[in-house]
Design goal:
- The complex is a heterodimer of chains A (about 350) and B (about 250).
- Chain A is about 80% helix and about 0% strand.
- With about 350 residues, chain A is mainly α.
- Chain A folds into 2 domains: about 150 residues; about 140 residues.
- With about 250 residues, chain B is an alpha+beta fold.
- Chain B is about 50% helix and about 25% strand.
- Chain B has 7 helices and 8 strands; from the N terminus they run αββββββββαααααα.
- The two termini of chain B are about 35 Å apart.
- Classes of the chains: A mainly alpha (about 350), B alpha+beta (about 250).
- At the A-B interface, helix 1, helix 3, helix 4, helix 5 and helix 6 of A face helix 1, strand 4, strand 7, strand 8 and helix 3 of B.
- Chain A: Pfam families: CopD.
- Chain A: It is found in: Cell membrane.
- Chain A: It comes from Thermocatellispora tengchongensis.
- Chain A: One of its GO terms (biological process) is copper ion transport.
């Protein structure tokens, strides 16, 4: 839809197009976002059942509220963070050359990024409370017990830092809402990525000389998956109805997504397998099939394997049509891919909590 | 796109220097008695050994008999990678379950159980309702006894001692606080959050104060696009900073 002519007809047509698209866009946001959340929560709950602490005589374990609430809140934290990253990336993907066309979308992205950042911060602080409750089974968490948890345990500190960075994201996002794209997109992306850095601390690594390389691999994994999922989410929700913008944005994102796919697969395999290999008492390759950790790792590999054909379909079948501004089923394919990514996030949350041995 | 990749590259490079230390999940590497052991004589204590130091606090270690009664005595003691609990004289012969839940060095709880079988009934009964922290109460009674004897010796010395203890307590608290970054950090974060809230409110108020502009925004880009085609570059500049117009 070109805007360059000065006759009244094209803007009118554009208006109709947008008027039709507006409710549809709301529906799509619901379906795509709902797919991500539903996939993530479903996988996190299934994982919680899988790794449930078996009852041990005489040992107090947390009740079902913590057992199932913790993974759900934790995965919602991931989803919110992913949304912030994706919505922050969107202006870069849109480009700044044609604000007349990109600005309506960028404006919605900026507002949504602030909301998602608040959700991220909220989930982080609720997760801290749940994790404190997990260590004090049979008691209701008090401010004192939560404070003690945060001061004693690195995972609590990591979540607090991540939540605080999310608040900083909201602050920068609010500046962007107020002053538009004059707030550098790189700043927003940088702050959001910084908020992801403490996330791996909330999981576990191994105690070995390979600790630092594995940590870097984990960080790359977290950032790569957030950029990939978040970028696709932002595009599917905000751009699927805008063929003109999609034609410009999707090819750019496609390159980023390819990079992310490679990064996420390699770093995930390195992290998962080396963590297992370096844990005492774990025999590879047998433990992959016998331990919960190994099975969860296999589930993630299977989900990535499922993502590849979906991504390839969008990249090789749909992209040429999208670039030619033809109608495509991009939204449906992207929505499916995002739901699978949601499942992977749910499994990931389980993996960070599962015993390795 | 190139700038984006540059940002990603810079962040990744920063990582190489600032990778935070996630800690490992503790794994049980050994125990005394061993898992599945068959014993003729009841052990006096149970020791679990992990691959790395266990964090103090949040530790549970229990011994449950075939009669369902509990036989551990007192709170478990953590010494490096070892967690030890004293065991009361065991009761009937049969399978005993050692249950544990410790705080792994990565901050996750690690739960598990081991079993051993007692072939000959011991003379003991269950340790009735394990006392929550006998070590602590022992210490307290020791201190009380000490204080009492001091009291007998000289009042001045006792008060000195009390002051000394108080000082030690305070310095321990200070050390802990400085280790944790103290409450100052929390206050700082709360202050930051409040400033943000204030900022959000200001923005919301301003947007509400300009409803005309807001509705134009809500109608989508119909007007924007139309006016852009007519007014060209000036409007383009405006739309780049939509909230800054009025």
């Amino acid at each position: 839809m070109s805007v360059s002519t000065s006759s009244p007809a094209p803007p009118d047509r554009g208006g109709e197009h947008l008027a039709e698209a507006a409710p549809a866009a709301g529906d799509r946001a619901l379906w795509v976002g709902g797919g991500l959340v539903a996939g993530a929560v479903a996988a996190a709950l299934a994982g919680a059942v899988l790794i449930a602490e078996e009852p041990v005589p005489g040992i107090a374990v947390p009740g079902p509220i913590v057992e199932f609430g913790l993974p759900v809140v934790r995965v919602l934290l991931d989803v919110a963070a992913v949304a912030v990253i994706g919505l922050s990336l969107l202006p870069k993907l849109l480009g700044f050359d044609d604000p007349a066309r990109t600005e309506p979308v960028a404006r919605r992205a900026r507002a949504a990024a602030v909301t998602a950042a608040w959700a991220w911060a909220g989930c982080a602080f609720v997760t801290v409370v749940f994790q404190a409750a997990e260590l004090n089974p049979g008691t209701v968490p008090t401010p004192a017990s939560v404070a003690a948890y945060v001061s004693d345990v690195g995972a609590g500190q990591g979540l607090v830092i991540s939540g605080a960075t999310a608040l900083a994201c909201a602050a920068v996002g609010l500046l962007a809402v107020r002053f538009g794209e004059s707030v550098p997109a790189e700043l927003r992306i940088g702050v959001a990525l910084f908020g992801l850095l403490p996330i791996p601390v909330t999981g576990h690594a191994v105690d070995s000389v390979w600790h630092d390389p594995i940590m870097i691999s984990m960080e790359l994994h977290v950032m790569g998956s957030a950029a990939w999922t978040g970028g696709l989410l932002a595009i599917a929700v905000l751009l699927a109805a805008r063929r003109d913008l999609l034609a410009a944005v999707l090819p750019r994102f496609s390159r980023l997504a390819t990079l992310c796919l490679v990064l996420v697969s390699v770093s995930g395999l390195v992290t998962g397998l080396s963590t297992m290999a370096l844990t005492p008492g774990v025999e590879l390759p047998g433990a992959i099939l016998t331990s919960d950790y190994g099975l969860l790792l296999l589930a993630k590999i299977a989900l990535v394997a499922l993502l590849v054909p979906l991504a390839a379909h969008i990249r090789f079948r749909l992209l040429p049509h999208v670039a030619a501004r033809r109608a495509t089923a991009f939204a449906a394919w992207a929505g499916t891919e995002i739901a699978v990514m949601g499942l992977a996030y749910g499994v990931a949350v389980t993996l960070t909590r599962a015993s390795i041995g | 796109m190139r700038r984006l990749l540059t940002v990603l590259a810079l962040v990744s490079a920063a990582l190489a220097f600032a990778a935070p230390a996630a800690l490992a999940h503790n794994v049980l590497t050994g125990s005394d008695p061993k898992d599945g052991a068959t014993l003729a004589e009841a052990p006096e204590r149970v020791t679990l050994t992990f691959d790395q130091p266990v964090r103090r606090g949040f530790t549970q270690l229990t011994v449950t008999g075939p009669d369902g009664a509990r036989y551990e005595q007192g709170a478990p003691e953590v010494d490096g990678p070892d967690v030890t609990a004293r065991v009361a004289p065991l009761g009937p012969a049969g399978e005993y379950v050692i249950g544990y839940r410790i705080l792994s060095s990565d901050g996750h709880p690690v739960t598990g159980k081991l079993t051993f079988t007692l072939t000959k009934a011991g003379g003991g009964g269950p340790s009735v309702a394990p006392t929550p922290a006998p070590a602590a109460s022992d210490g307290a009674s020791d201190a009380a006894a000490d204080a009492a004897s001091d009291d007998a010796a000289s009042d001045g010395a006792a008060s000195d001692r009390a002051a000394d203890a108080e000082r030690r307590e305070l310095s321990a608290q200070a050390a802990e606080a400085s280790q944790n970054g103290g409450a100052g950090m929390a206050v700082l974060w709360i202050a930051v959050a409040l400033v943000l809230l204030a900022g959000a409110t200001v923005v919301a108020m301003r947007r509400n104060a300009a409803p005309a502009q807001g509705s134009a925004t809500a109608q989508g880009s119909t007007t924007t696009q139309g006016s852009t085609t007519v007014d060209d570059s000036a409007t383009v500049q405006d739309t780049a900073t939509p909230a800054g117009k009025e």
